[in-house]
Specification:
The longest helix has about 30 residues. Helix 1 packs parallel to helix 3 and helix 2 crosses helix 3. The chain has a domain of about 55 residues. It is mainly alpha-helical. It contains five helices and no strands. About 60% of the residues lie in helices and about 0% in strands. It starts with a helix and ends in a 27-residue tail after the last helix.
Length: about 140
């Protein structure tokens, strides 16, 4: 336990050791016993703040005030059934199933017929400025 950590604990939790964290209470009390004058100064400073905070009370609200708040609060709407969420999930699963079936049909068609799909190599509409051009301009 360091003096800085002891001050941090007292500043955060007050002068009463019962409020200090359980895992640091023993070490803080042992440090305070070894450094009594320094610990007493820190504890006295915090004790005055603790006393002020303890003396501060808040009166409960008047019943008319509570009634006004409740009267102006929005009404609770009954919860909607979760059927909409269920339909959204079913639609999502159906779309995925349809895509999987379309892909399986396309693959099986090409496997059964033995003809691979036609690939147009170096077509001008398939090239980009990053992949080069199919036109040879070296002769000019």
């Amino acid at each position: 336990m360091t003096p800085e950590r002891f001050r941090t604990i007292v500043d955060a939790y007050g002068a009463d050791p019962r409020r200090w964290p359980d895992e640091e209470r023993a070490a803080a009390e042992a440090w305070a016993d070894l450094h009594r004058s320094e610990a007493d100064a820190v504890l006295a400073e915090s004790a005055s703040l603790d006393a002020w905070l303890t003396s501060h009370t808040i009166a409960p609200p008047e019943r008319s005030f509570v009634d006004r708040i409740v009267a102006t609060a929005p009404a609770r709407h009954p919860r909607k059934p979760r059927t909409r969420l269920w339909w959204q999930g079913a639609a999502f699963a159906g779309i995925g199933l349809a895509g999987g079936l379309a892909g399986a049909f396309a693959v099986s068609f090409f496997v059964l017929t033995g003809t691979p799909p036609q690939v147009h190599e170096s077509s001008s509409y398939l090239t980009s400025s990053f992949g080069g051009s199919s036109v040879d301009w070296s002769g000019e």
